[in-house]
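Lab channel / #folding
Pinned by the channel admin:
"Please post every new chain as: sequence first, then the structure tokens as a reply. Keep commentary short and put observations after the output so the thread stays searchable."

First post following the new format, from NK:
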Amino acid sequence: MGKMWEGRFSKALDQTADDFNSSISFDSKMFRQDIKGSMAHAAMLGAKEIISLEDANTIIGALQGILEDIEKGALNIDMTCEDIHMFVEAELTKRIGDTGKRLHTARSRNDQVALDIRMYLRDETNKVIEMLKDTVEAIIEQAQKNKDAILPGYTHLQRAQPITFGHHLMAYAMMLLRDISRLKDALKRMNLSPLGSCALAGTTYNTDRNFTAQILGFDGITANSIDGVSDRDFCVELASAFSLIMMHLSRFSEEIILWSSWEFKFIELDDSFTTGSSIMPQKKNSDMAELVRGKTGRVYGDLITLLTMLKGLPLAYNKDMQEDKEAIFDSVETVQKCLEVFAPMVRTFTTLKDNMYKAAQKGFINATDLADYMVKKGLPFRSAYKTVGQIVAYCIENNKVLDTMTIEEYKKYSELFEDDLYNEISLETCVSKRISEGGTSVESVEKQIKLALESLKND
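Reply from TO:
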């Protein structure tokens, strides 16, 4: 097939160079967006009498036929074409002759591809948002079931204070809700139509850019034609947001991997989201969580690819920018694949509450509450902190825990201690008295769940 731009050239493009230059292997996934964008452009050309209304309608009808044929498998995309734009235009001309050649009036591939990628990413990002919502709902379901399950909270991966499992899970719900908000913000900045910017300088034709923008669901148009064709900030911004999503999923995956290990045994992953070993018959591996953790670096790499590709480009369009698609397509598709498996993995795991509680009984995680007990008796916190530290050292030396020390032993450190301290340092009390907003008490977790559900509903 001849090149649409071959009139200037006396020699055919070298085959190796042609293959190197081609992008249809990956930009063909934008065929819907390319055809819909072309239909809107044809409608505008007809409305503004740049081409006849009859030609515009003929073009639109033929494009609709091409779209339907591709979707039902009656037409295969020719992978020898340079890109999806050239394929669609060539197929259009093949079907309706010279009338099809009028479509590219007042348009360049530069604004065409800028339009297609915005539309494609808008569609795919909205899918990610829905998948994030489903994942948040799965987390909320587990948090609701485990709002009173006590386990150790950790800092530095050392047992720190008693918390509820529901409280811990809702931390991840809050992260993913921020991700949803971040993607929506990015969509607002991206949802401006570059169509009509042409190659970089606009056009001498009396076009109506707002006409096509409205038809295609954009909030407006890009204000500068050079920026319209050379801007890929939206790709970088989305890749950054996708990287944050993966970072959150990876942190959660790490904990799922730890919690499901024999060393913790806080949860049991469903068999349908685990794999076995080819040699060790006892193994039950958390491969889905491990893959999510591993794919995070891949999405980070896509972000760096985009930033590096753009950093030295003069205005306006440069062929380097063809490299945007593989990176951002890989980024969004990786996030989608991870979320697709993540939500049901979370929704189906079983909580081993007894193991959580037994772990919470060790590690002196009620030491802060013992210090708070002394503060309520009138001792300055730093003095109470030192005294409790000495008591913990005594317990370690004598193989005791705070709950098993006698009142006589306590009084050796301070006369402030009374029998009521045992209730104050029980795990249940430690959790229930965390009454500050956002804390670990059951009441607080219920508020967090309500807040998250309201956020999902408002979205």
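NK: Residues 109-145 form the longest helix (37 residues).
TO: also worth noting, The two ends are 48 Å apart (CA to CA).
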